[in-house]
Amino acid sequence: MKHLKELSILIIALLIITSCSDDDNPIIVVEEEVITTMTITLTPDGGGTSTIMQTRDDDGDGPNPPVVTNPVNLAANTTYTGSIELLNELESPAEDITEEVEELDDEHQFFFSATNAIATFDYTDQDDDGNPVGLNFTLTTGNAGTGTVTVSLIHEPMKDASGVSDGDITNAGGEEDISETFNVVVQ
Amino acid sequence: MKHIIGIIACCICNLAYCQNCTSSLNGYIEDFHDGTPISGATIYIETLNTYKTSDINGKFTIKNICDGKLVIVVSHLACDTKRVEIDIEGETNYELNLEHHIEELDEIKINGKINSKLTKTSQESVLNTETIERFSALNLGDALKQVSGVSAINTGNAIVKPVINGLHSSRISVITNGVLLQDQEWGIEHAPNIDLNSAGTINVIKGANALAYSGDAIGGVIVLKPTNISLKDSLYGKTILSAQTNGRGYNVVSSLTKCWKKGWFINGQASLKRFGDFEAPNYNLTNTGLETKGINLNTGFKTFEKGFNINYSYLTNEIGILRAAHIGSINDLVDAINNTEPILIEDFSYDINAPRQEVTHQIFKAEFYKRFKRFGRFEFQYDFQDNQRFEYDVRRTDDNKPAIDLNLKTHSIRADLKLDANIKAIYNFGVSARYQNNFANPDTGIRRLIPDYDKYDIGVFAISNLKWGDKTNLDFGVRYDFNSIDAKKFYLKSRWEERNYSQDFNDIIIDDVGNQFLANPVYNFHNVSLSAGISHKISSSQSILFNYGLSQRSPNPSELFSDGLHHSAARIELGDLRIKQERSNRFGGTYQLNTSKLQLNVEGFVNHIKDFIQIIPFGTEQTIRGAFPVWNYTQTDAFLFGVDVTANYDFNDQWRINNKSAFIKGRDTKAKTALIDMPAFRTVNILGYTNKKWLGYNASLESEWVFRQNDYPNYNFETLNPTTQQMVLVDISTPPPAYDLLHFRNDITVLLSDKTNLNIGLYVSNIFNTSYREYLNRLRYFADDLGRNFMLQLKLNY
Asked: What is the ipTM of this complex?
């Protein structure tokens, strides 16, 4: 049958196509989007040693939990100047995500909250629209006590929504890029 | 092909020498398939303008004719009419083959009303062209809901996947124009890349009883066939225009076909669909627009005995996904579930921003077939498919850089032999081979969700259809499939340990890069499928059918390799290298009643699936964004059973009622809980009115009532709200309440000329603008389903 010839040509063509697949290994992908490390440096007004609050997740969205500074020790009734550094340490050298947030500061905002009235927060930076960002802020401690401080970074918050520019996360919407709670001892 | 056996010189020399017009023709007409003589065929002698009829032995004689060319036209009931030219020289013998029992074969002409089923003993339903055209602006999944027992699992309103008797994705095979669709069908947010408008009919076969198509379709098989081409000189076409209020968009489909009597045909179709943001009853569904472009080109040659067909189709879909459904953390999910409205609502827009999908599917197919006399039909096909999937997430830096960039290329060949010489025993044998390559582009900067892999499949099957008397059909089928997957995947070392792979799989690690391992898992699966069925006509109006199917399905790449965070669900999804095949044993039974007023179809099934693969919550993992639930692919044993009812009652020529109901239960027999994502009881009641005198006026009022799914597994869990430091419930399991929607549609048909008619239809869906959410919609946590919609459709046939 002449069709057998056509059939065999097609089969051969298919075999050629399949045998062309290369055996090269795929290229590794290092996660670009992830923030692995948030380091908050708190410097007491009037001098003194800085305090570090850090959360670091060395496998990104992998199974290992982040390593978090625990507890964070702060002095009572003190105002600290805070600054935040964000890194993606999966990349080598580590990628500085702080710069990205600075560039797109209208699309980002940090939110701070504390339990047991151990601290209050004020923004000391602004985006081009005059809304707060939170890469720079002040933290003022209250009387001695223990509690938690939660720091969240929201991507694409609705900064115009009620209370958002005052630091209230309730109406912010957007998506959480970071949400970390620190145990804090004020003494 | 003309089967001229030979022209025998006449022996009556005297007459031949002397007179020209004393020649004769001895004709014999037989059946192409089994060679039996055909009696009672009409022979029209064009040259003489006279008629003859073949006798009981299939013979006829035309006497006293002149030498030279004689044109006869032979026709017979249930046969294709044949016109032949015969050279007459003296006493001429001529044998002619007619395709008798043509009604038994695939090539039957469909005049729009008669439904052609592909199987005799399966639970099969057919959607005709008219129904498909009504869904022209929607999706395959929407259209298939017209079949009782078929529901849909959605991601919003534009990504709709069919669910047959509770099963979907890899458990359903979709065949379009003879091509088994290969388009990353495993994911729930991956809708089949099918332009519904390219189909003339759609057959839905429940269960794995259509072994000619695939062996692993535990849920069922969906077969889309193009409109049949008639073998006459003609040029015809169709244009559908529709515009609708919800989504403020339009849909245009146009097709043109040219065919020639000799069998050549060429056909082209283009479609374009554009919608902006859709609306729920109370708000805009921001970023739910879509744009679809499709082209379908078809050419070939087709006769009863042989033919070929070359087909190219291109379909690209750009689909916006509800902006509010893209979330960063579990707190966002809790907020979304607890809020009655989506977190982000903007004014109407046609813009399609991230999150969005851009999927292009191309199919090239070449097929040819040949029929052999008194033997059967041989068919050979090659097809190539290219599926390019981009998914864009809301990214911190560049929304125009895809988060997922997968390219799936598939080459398939298929050979099929059908022995149909004996209509009482038809045998079908086939072999198929497939090579597939998946390439996950690393430029996304996001770890691959699905790794690079090569996949090889080989399948062989044998099917018999036996007729036992006039009333009983018996089917048996067996199929063997070999599937081989060779993947190369990077694992985070921490994930490798967490999965406990270091115990069993350290030998497949081929490279160690930073904090990741490169592994090379290779799988070989051997699957056997069996099918048996019997159908019996109890009386002229009643028939019953029973069937059994055993089928095995190999795990798909997502079940084996999935590894990543899904933003739309705020969950980490993990495959498992240890997953094996699942095996289904399904019994089905159908009762059919067909009287002049009442048509009733009741289908029941039980399906036991051993090692059923499902994705269920497993625990939580802590990240810098807070806790995420981890969803794991695991295996259990499942038991599903259900009843699907379709009933139609005609009061008179004008009024009718119709009911379609589907009941299904799915149990996890190991965990002793309900199965996740099982469709709730659904009943559709339609009151229809037709009046042929009013320009063929049709109207129907439809009530679609979906109950609440009360049988669901509870996977709710608690998480810490960091702001309030309180534990809050993450209610991901509780199904939404029942809903009842009312739809209305009516249409008229205006004859513009002999060959041109215009059908004008006005449809209103969700008349009362009811707010509702559907359990099987993945975006039900975030927003209501669609509100009221008016659609005007113009359908021009020319």
From this structure: 0.83
